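Bug #77: duplicate submission created two jobs. Keeping one. Sequence:
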Amino acid sequence: MVPRMRARLYDIIERRDSDSRWGIIVDVFLVVLIVVNVLAVILESVKSIDAIYHEQFFVFEVFSVVIFSAEYLARVWVVPEDPHETPYGPIMGRWHYMTTPMAIIDLLAILPFFLAFFVTVDLRFLRVFRLLRLLKLTRYSPALHTVAKVFMAQRRSLMAALMIMCTLLVFGGSVSYLLEREAQPEAFGSIPDAIWWAMATLTTVGFGDVTPVTPAGKVFGGVLMILGVAMYALPAGILATGFAQEFRKHDFRVTWSMVARVPIFAGVDAAVIAEIVDRLIPLVVPMRHTIVRRGEVSDAMYFIANGDVEVDLIHSPPRHLSDGDFFGEIGVLMDRKRTATVTAINETRLMVLEASDLKALVEEHEVLEHNLKKVLNERLHELEEIGQV
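Kept job's structure:
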């Protein structure tokens, strides 16, 4: 009974790929609670609002801590159901999970509340740390997961850029100190003071309260500004490249998954799948756009990367296809005209495999030819049943 309850709870709170209705409800509830908590912390800092609603804020805080504490304990309890933690055993697996970044964030979200009961000093400043609950959104946001992946993948490049910028900052501050210390001892009287000016200059903030006055200082300041524009654009370029690579990898994984699901390509090795993926052409169509029409020449088959389409057949109800589905392959392989009209329900991203490429792949790989005969026979039987042939 207990293992079954734990497995069910694991499906609800941990499996992001689960279609469980309760899992979706719990996720939405926790996301809303996190956002409302952040808003409550912000509003509580306004004295006039806090004076009126102080008790309500406290009650809501207690309610939130109870929910977040129950969530934390539940996630620790279901760890043995996680296949990644199973090799560690129940006890060490839980400890390993509790040291992961997401578990630490969950703990920090509730820790300030409980510290107030054990520490006698004024812990009102810990209220600010309740904003850490905003980090819990990373559990539910694919976009934030992508950001974390990019930073991890590019950490070496970012560290190298940071070291270069720090070196330039210290160098710029030291030279500015040597050039301006006698003319402006109050602003450039020490290297740390000069580094503050160099930081404002390199970051192109330029507060304007301190500027070089000597000719050499002005020339060096101009050079420092130009270097600042170049150097501080370096991390932006690194991150842009990282995001582009991450999106390409994601698109490749999605495309690979779609291709592997097609019956014609079942059982082929990775090299063939990679060859097919390499031949795909991306295509984005707007809402209500007709992708193919009945009676047209079959010149390509289509994979739906993102979006929804409606397939209008002659003697059967319209069919709805969405992410991961495909259409148009039978017309290409049977050398016959389109038997249905396919229309995009919303903006849809497609991957197109042209007829010539599909036929060339079938001719080159024997396993594809075998799959083709099997799929054609099955599809012909389906078409006969609905009166399409």
